[in-house]
C-alpha cells in the first residue's frame, strides 16, 4: 500500500531542495540541475558559493574523469565517452570527435548535444574532401597536384570552439594538422563548412599555422612566420581579413631569453602560443621547459608574456624589428592556455589572478611526430611559483583540458 506521506524526488518543495543544493559540491550541483525541470528551476534560485576554479577534463586510456583543484578531488563521469577525442572547449561545452569521425559539441554537465555537419560537407571553390574510410579522407585542391588528392587522417584533426550560451550561438573551426591547406569553419544553423585558405592566394606573411585562438566571431592565427592573422567570421558569406597596425611586424619575444635561463641545466624546449584577453588584446606566451636536476622530481617550467603596442607610430614600424614588450601581470584575470583565452579571477572563489593554467603547448599544432605528454600545472606570474597536482600522477592521462565552467 502506498504511503500517503511519500513524495517523489521531483516533487520536493523549493525550501527543501534549496537546502539540499546549497550543500552539494560544485560538480554534484551541476549534476543535480539535470535531474528534472523542478530541480533545474530551483538551482537557478539557489544562493550558493559559486566555484570560480577552473576544472580539468582528464582523458585516460579507458575513461574520462573530472578534476577539481579547489577540492583536490577527481570525479568519475557517468557518461560513456569511449572512443571519443576531446578537441577543444568553451565553458562547459566541448568539441568532440567520435569513433565514426563525426564532430559534435556537448555540454558535459547536461544532456545537451549538437551534431555538426559531416567533415566532408565543405563548400569551397578551391578544396574538396571525400570520406574514404572510417578514419580516412581524400583531400583535393582544385587544379592542384597530385590530381588524385592527398590522404588525411582524423588522427591529425585539430579544432577550436566558441559558445555563447546567452545568445545560443556557437562557432567551430578545424583543420588537418599535417600539411594544412585550409581551415574549415561553421556557425550555428549551418549544415556545411566554409574554408579559409592558409597558403593559396595568401600573403607569405600570413601563410601557415603555428597556433590559433577562436574568440566569438574572431579567429586569431599565429602564422609560421610569426605574424598574427586576424579573421572576422561574422559575415554571412565567408570571412574577412582584418588589418591591424600592431600586427604589421612579426610577433616575437621582446628580448632574447635571460642568459641564466638558457644555460640552466640545458633547456629542453621553448614553445610559443598566442592568447586573447577579455578586452581583446593578443598575447604571446613563451613557455620554457628545463631538464630536471638531481634534486627535482619534475622538470622546471617558466612562462613569459608579451604584447604589442596597439597603436604604434610610423617610426617604430619603419625602424623596429619587433613591437612587443613583456608584461608581468594579467590583472584580475587568469589564462587558460588550452583555449587561449583569459577568464575572470577571484582568489575567494578558487582562481588566482595572474595564473596560467597549462597542460601542453601543441594542442593546436604538433610539429613533432608524437604529441607531447600533458604537463598539468598552474604558474603564477607574480610569484613565479609552479603548482602541480600529485593526485593526478595515479591517473596517467594521455590528454587533459582546463575549462572554466559556466
Automatic annotation (TrEMBL):
Domain of life from the UniProt record: Eukaryota
Residues covered by the F-box domain: 9-44
Domain KIB1-4 beta-propeller: 66-380
Pfam families linked to this entry: Beta-prop_KIB1-4, F-box
Xref: InterPro entries: F-box-like_dom_sf, F-box_BR-signaling, F-box_dom, KIB1-4_b-propeller
Official protein name in the record: F-box protein
Species assigned in the record: Eruca vesicaria subsp. sativa
